[in-house]
Amino acid sequence: MRLPAGVFPRGSMFWCRLVIPKDLRHLYPRTASGALATTHSCVSLQTSDRAEARVRGMARRAEVEGEFLEKRRALAVPAVRPTAALQTIIADAVYAGQLAWDEGRRADRHTTVRMVSGVHSGPIDSRPDYPEVSRLAPLPASVVAQRAAFNRTRLEYVQHAIASGDLQAMIPLASQAARSLGLTVDWDSAEGAATLEACLRAHARACEVSIKRDSGVVVDTPALPEPPSDTSALKATPLHLRDALVNWEAKRRPKPDALKRTERALLLLKEAGHDKPLGKLTRPDGARLRDWLRDPARGFKQKTGQNYWLALQSLLNVATEYGQLERNPWAGLEFDVTDSKGRAEFTAEQLTALFGSTLYTAGAYRPIYKVQPWDAYYVMLLGLWTGSRIGELGQLEVADVLTENRVALVSIHEDAEGSTIKNPEAGIRKVPIAPEVLRLGLMDFVRDRQAAGDIKLFPSLHRGGKTSPGDVMGEWVRGYRKDLGLPPGPLEGFHKFRHTIRTALAAHHVGEATADALTGHAATGSTGRKVYTHVRPVTVLEALRLPLFPFLDLPRVYPTRSAS
Questions:
Q1: Would 427 disulfide with which of 39, 367, 421, 518, CB 3.0-4.6 Å?
Q2: Contact 426/523 with Cβ under 8 angstroms?
Q3: Least confident among 298-302, 344-348, 485-489
């Protein structure tokens, strides 16, 4: 029985770990050290029974997600254009906030040491020791010097932004200050730009005070300004499509790729000259924007333009649902794609090259993008024999390899934090593991990951930050293909495995329903085909027993795991 994402055993009890979204963390209290004081992060479910923990974990997640949704709705206030008085208040909030941050770091000496010493990766026993500090003794001279250098660098950064007119650099801090006052500011307006300029100057003054404090000058931290009591003078900005983004995020819970695509679509909307107030968007505006996105002068393929178009349509639908718009004026406008170049399957010669390197004859290969050879080894094999997308495989966890009814399976889902499925309706599935992949040692690889205490099946693909495991593996594949002299280009990459396996199955007269169940393609055709046809894993497994790639004769190179 699979536990919900975030539920895990600790000792004799099950616990639930949930992450507060970054856009809401400013709403939760923090301790003196800066850590979140809330208990949302990790709480005991008060049970040692796995089935009960599963139910309590799902209830806990539903409760907290509901809380996050309400907070996002509360934040979705119309953007304003600050008056001159309000611009001063927001700038003062930036100044006071930065000095409070500086004062907190000076009070927490351990945080100061780590901040100026940098972050070190690798095993704990190989990391350099941080200097010892005490509550009463002076900081080491090296730490004091590093802190002073850090503050000078901060000031130089802000001064460069002032000199170059880089107002965008100030938006994160200014937005945080505005939110503390219960406001959302239209930064694109003339008043918003003037506010950013005032905030930049306030930030520079705060950095100068930090430098004075480094030399022993005593400068008190001012209190944060009070929110304005009378907001009647605020000039409200008409709602634009970007204002639907908060509700869209709360409703859709988009993955990073979808959020990035939607942000890019909003920029293109503005570039095309159609970023009008919601109430003034017309159907002809939508038709002109669609044609603008289809124009080859944009520099991207029509399929990419269609993705941007659908992202904007999704925002319009959410704006309508939440009452920001009476109806979607672009509903029913189709974005036909006429120039999409199809991918072909890998040829026998190309597959022989892909699986004929030292990676598959000796289990070793030169480092590419810091991906471990065995991770790349099995992702490529699973890509060939399942036709799964590179992102679906890269995000797999050790627990996703399981056995049901004596059939070894890979469970592809989006329950784990950070996981994403392009088409959840068809993409969430359990895929049988081909006998050939089992022969080449996948289960021993999985057991070794379990023994090492890994959660992720391919740990070297998980770098954190904005780079997804699928993107990391994609970089490896590009380098690998270049080494082998295979054709370059986005249409020649990992995605061709999907076409390759389907072509091989079709050559053996395997039905489309079985191929769809393997690759996660959405069913097309009649209602019976789409709704009532369910292909069992054992049926897919029988198809994978066919001689689909008879020209590949790979030796087993992964070490055999001992029975002990």
A1: 421
A2: yes
A3: 298-302
User: What pLDDT score was predicted for residue 32?
Assistant: 61
What number of other Cβ atoms are within 10 A of residue 25's Cβ?
Answer: 12
Q: What is the DSSP letter of 397?
A: B
**358 vs 313, 355, 394, 437, 554, CA distance in Å?**
48, 9, 22, 17, 11
Are the CB atoms for 388 and 431 separated by under 8 Å? Answer: yes
What is the token pair recorded at 52? 């009960």
DSSP string, 87-156: HHHHHHHHHHHHHHHHHHHHH-HHHHHHHHH----S-GGGSPPPPP--SSSPPPHHHHHHHHHHHHHHHH
- Asked if the model's pLDDT at residue 95 lies above 60, the reply is yes
What average pLDDT does the chain have?
Answer: 84
Q: Look at the chain and count its residues.
A: 564
In order, the DSSP letters of 352-389 are HHHTSSHHHHTS----BTTB-HHHHHHHHHHHHHH---
Quote the DSSP letter at residue 330: T
Distance CA 208, CA 156 (A): 10
98 burial via Cβ count (<10 Å: 0-12, 13-18, 19+): buried
pTM: 0.49
CA distances from 143 to 130, 140, 217 (A): 10, 5, 18
- pLDDT tens digit sequence for 243-285: 888 788 877 778 777 888 999 999 999 999 988 888 889 988 9
Enumerate residues 6+ apart whose C-beta is below 8 A from 463.
469, 472
Distance CA(58)–CA(66), nearest Å, equals 12
CA distance 174 to 171: 5
Query: Tokens for 535?
Result: 């292909």
